Amino acid sequence: MTTREQAIEAAARWFDEGHFLAELRRRVAHRTESQEEGRLPQLTAYLSEEIGPTLERLGFSWRLVDNPVSGFGPILIGERREDPHLPTVLSYGHGDVIRGYEEQWRQGLSPWDIVVEGERWYGRGTADNKGQHSINLAALARVLEARGRLGFNLKLILETGEETGSPGLHAVCERYRDELKADVFIASDGPRLRAAQPTLFLGARGAFNFDLTVELREGGHHSGNWGGLLANPGTILAAAIASMVDGRGRILVERLRPPAIPNSVRKALAGIEPGEPGGPEIDRGWGEPSLTPAERVFAWNSLEVLAFRTGNPERPANAIPPAASAHMQLRFVVGSDWRNFIAIIRAHLDRHGFAMVAAKPARMEMMAATRLDPDDPWVEWAVRSIERTTGHRPVVLPNLGGSLPNDCFAEVLGLPTVWVPHSYPACSQHAPDEHLLAPVAREGLLMMTGLFWDLGESGGPKRG
Length: 464
Ligand SMILES: [Zn+2]
Description:
about 475 residues; four-stranded antiparallel β-sheet; 13 helices; 19 strands; about 20% strand; binds zinc ion
């Protein structure tokens, strides 16, 4: 009889013998850049030649479904069924990565072959998301080795379009709703609060990108001859933005703000300090004044100017520019009136005398906001399991500050969603020199082995 402790020790040994690194190296070598044209063969190969065979060894059945949005990569659906009376977990990962940007990586590093430097394993996808789903698949394998069975049913959905906004994922979750039925969703992506702090998050902020533009006339006009006579689009746009968000980052449009922060969310965030050692210092006077920094990033909306252009910024001329544009982003939490954002912005601009400012959603897909109640019994169950493995209570974030396609699972499939991230804020995800921290990956493997072990023992939280 293997014990929990022995199973976790065996997982640690397996990691220390280099097996995990070897598995991940093989996966990183697949150039699954979903943002590049013509990568369908690579995206398909990752699923059918790499993940599929791994699942078969774990006793899964699996198949690929075509992406309902043409031109985007397939989605793998897999299942290991043990007993219909046992609980069922749905897990998720994405096999695609951000562009390699090969020439921008530091000398000696490559996006497509892992380079180990101390604790850092460099390579595209090591953190986002190949490293993370590889940890979870490896943990399942370790539990199977130790116990001969999981003690629960597992379903897996692995997509290849997350870095292009998960096209087709909603439709697939809707179409295969019955097949994907489960009791809980457990998956990994994104960062821990800090490298050394095991973290759970229960949802994500949404993201709504939009453009504001002012186009008043053709061409610029000499500012000496016309200054004072011609309206300046840059000035108008700056004033329009200032009517929406003040100089300290406080959102001024009532309906772009979320409802009051629920008590369970406040409680979960108490004592949490966002930010990362070595990262930029948090600006204390920024954002909604009555909130703590953790509440500002995890429980509130933020409205950002991501880019602003008028005239010729590189070579300014003495001319009143003909046009101005700004690319804006609203990160928002659950409860925000997201269906009406653009109408709310339009009405606000009109009311404040900015009818000449056009507002339209950016081409990017809107990401929805989700959040499982921190008081949900699955949360405390997962917290206890991780605490048992690591000796410390993990941080619980009601939602990530960033965005994820979690609404597919939380809303379309109606599941309690528990995310256990295995990366950290300074991992350079989406940039050159992306890396995974070996000690975090190792701890993640042990945590997930413990979590899956416990689920097979206890079947999850007791139902009230
Ligand atoms: Zn990503």
